[in-house]
Every structure is written in C-alpha cells, then in structure tokens.
Please model this.
Amino acid sequence: MKHKLETFTEFAGNLYPHEADYLMGIQRFNKPVNLQILKKIHYNCYHQQSQQEFDPDLDKRSYSYMKSWITEMLDKADVDKFYEWLVYAEKQVMTDAILPDEEKEIIENLNVITPSHYYFLRFYELIEHFRDFLLIRVRNRFYRPTNTYLQRFEAAYQRSIAINKNLNRAAEEIIRQHETFDVDPIIFNDFLQSTFSDESLDGYTRYRAAVRLTFMFYNYREFEQLRVLYNDLDKLFKTNLFYSKRILANYYSNRAMMHSKLNELETAEKYGYFSVIQKNSDYFFYLANLCGVLLRARKYEKALKLMSASISDLKNTGSIYNRIGFASFYTRTLVYNKMAKKAVSYASSFLEAYKKEVFETRWHLFFSAYLEALLHAEKYDKVVAIANRYNLLTMEKKSSDKTIYLPILLWITEVALYMKGKRTKQKIIEIILSSAQNLLKNRYKAGRITELLEILSLSIPEEVAYIRRQLSVLKSQNE
Model:
C-alpha cells in the first residue's frame, strides 16, 4: 500500500492547479471518498510547500479509480490529444487506410466540433479530405452529413482563416519591434483584443491573439493591461477551452514574468514553480524565468541549486533563444552566489561558442549578465574591451527612446572606466544621474533603478548611495 500511495502521490503532484479546478468543476461523484481525494489533490496543487498526505487507510481501489478518472477526463479535454487524433485521422484518410470504426468516430465528431472548438480549423480541413474520400467512392450515407457540415460552417472557417493571416502579420511586426525597435505594432491592439474576446471564434485563433498581446504588452511594459488579459485567461483555463499541459505551463511562466515585473515576487515565484512541474520543450525558458524571480527575491542559493541541477541537460534543447536565456541567468546566478570568476569563465565560453546566435537574438540580456560578471570579478579592462569590440553602447543607445530601454551596459562600462581611473567621481555620478533621471519618467523603468544600482553598489558603494539620495529627491519633486 505504501508503494501504491507513493505512485498516486507522484501522479497527483504532476497535476497543475487549473487542472484541479477543472476537475472540481466537472465532478459528479456519488461516493464521498472520491470527492475527498479530489479535494486533497486540489489543495495540494495550490499549496506546493505545505502539502497534505493522502490517507493510507482509504481503500486502494478508490485511489486507482481516481487516477483512471482524472486521466480520462483530462485526456478528453486536452486539445493537444485531440490534435494528435486529427493528425492520425487525416493520415488514415489520405492514405486510404481508414477503418470503419475510425470513420464512425469522425462522423460522431460532426455533432461535437463547432466553430468555437480549439482545433475547429484543422477539423474542418479533415472533413474536407474525408468528403473527397467518400465522394469518389459514392459513399452517400456518410457523404451527406460531411457535406452539410462543410456548407454550414464554411463562412466561419473562411473568417478564421482571414483572421489568422492578420495574426501572422501582427506577429511579424511585434517580433520585429522587439528585435529592431523601428516599428510600432501597438496599432494591432484593438484587433488582437477583439479577436481574443470573440467567443464565436475557435480557441486556437483566440489563443494566438492572446500570445501576441502578451508579447506586445511586454515590449511596451504595459503590465497592468497584461494583468487584465491574464485574469481573463485564468477563468478560461478552468474550463476545457484552451486546456493542455503545454499551454498551461506557458501561461504559468508568462504569469510569473508579469508578477515579477510588477514586483509581486512571492506570487511570481509561485507561478514560476508551477511552470516547471513538468519538463517540455520550453522547460529551460521557464526555468530561466523562475531563476530570474528568485534572484530578484534574493533567494540566490535556491536559484543556483535549480540551475545547476539542469545545466547538463541544456545541450538537449534545440532552441538557441532558450539556451541564451538560460546562460544569461546562470551567469548572474553564479555572480550572486559569489562565484564571479566561474561566471566569467562560463559566459566567455558560451559567447565563443554562440557569438553569432547571441547577436541575432538576445544580445542585450546576455551582455548585461556577462559585463556584470566581469565587473564583480574586477576585470575592468575586459569590460571596456568587450564593450568597445562589439560596439555595445551604441547598440544599446539605439533603443533609448523605447520602453524596453535600460542603460545597464552604459553604467557598467562607465563604472569600469572609473575604477581604471579614466573617469572622475563627479563625472561617473553625473553620467549615471543623468540617464537615471530619464528613467524616472517611466513607472516601470523607475522601479528598475534600484535593481540596476544594486549591480554597481559593490564596486562604488559611496557613489551609489549619493546617487540614490539625489534620485529620491528628484522623485519626490516629481510627485
């Protein structure tokens, strides 16, 4: 029985909070013991650090039943599982290998899949192929309902296709703005908001709009607007509209980042841990986000333990974007655990191996971590050399009028020059104060000043203390 409970506890521990919410919403148990077990699962999902043990005196058959019931209910709701069936069914149709029971399953789904279903578009296309398969074989019995379905929902299908083309265009502009800062995708806001809110559209199209809104709100640091979006998503995730473990993990990670930006670190940490309950293709992206939260909360040892345990698996990720993010946060984690020399060695090796990729994607994130490591390792000449060799300050300044801009590379380089005797005390204070004063105009950037000055404080504590006092005066004058 002990082994059985260990197995069940592990199974229950891999469930996400919104899965437990959904299960609570659909359960109609006649046996009180089943609801008792489900309520404990629900509690544990939301209380990761203070979980309750399952009662070993309950009939083991109840645990077996609940495991089977939970698996069946979640599989039935899982849009990714449905997609797998779609791909398989399409292959069977296209290769003339479909069996009678499989044909019947397709026909039965005609009464279930409406234009608001997550994968309505792909199902509609499957029915198009299936109708052709039936027509050429003069299979009128099944042909008629498939043809009726296609005619009934043709307008909805064409509308969703058109909207998705506009979503593709919006994504291109939003990503280009993130990388080059020369476009203004905020013009897509109304279109994306209305698409996400349109309950007549398929879930896939609506969720694509939510993803683009997320990216856009991050670009513009509109975190309160993002909170509104995520509160709406939170309610929808308690249904089966958008459900899959993949989508939930992404939502938790994004929500962790949002709460971190809003300086709600305890909540951010909670969602961050939700996001890494299971490993998927974006696990390292989620892990880096969580460690960023832990660093901001000054939980340095916890962050190092998490990242160190996963670094050997980094080679298995195919996403260079995620790899650069992990490397950047791992470098910072080493610095905050007083291992600056190791951080320098790691970042130097990473840059040598992935220089081209770093400059193509997340160069500012990576060099912020790398120069910080060099500064803490007192390698001032190297800081200046790296900044000059790669023209980092000019690249950073190009984004000075954007909401994403933070002058961390400038500040670190100027401190290095000061430590080398190439800047006077008055000059370094003037440079940092001047650029920091501009940050005060933006609420999000103003909130980051303390964090950025913390990076410099170990090298120039007196100067940073003076700058903080001056900024405090300026801030009070502006209020």
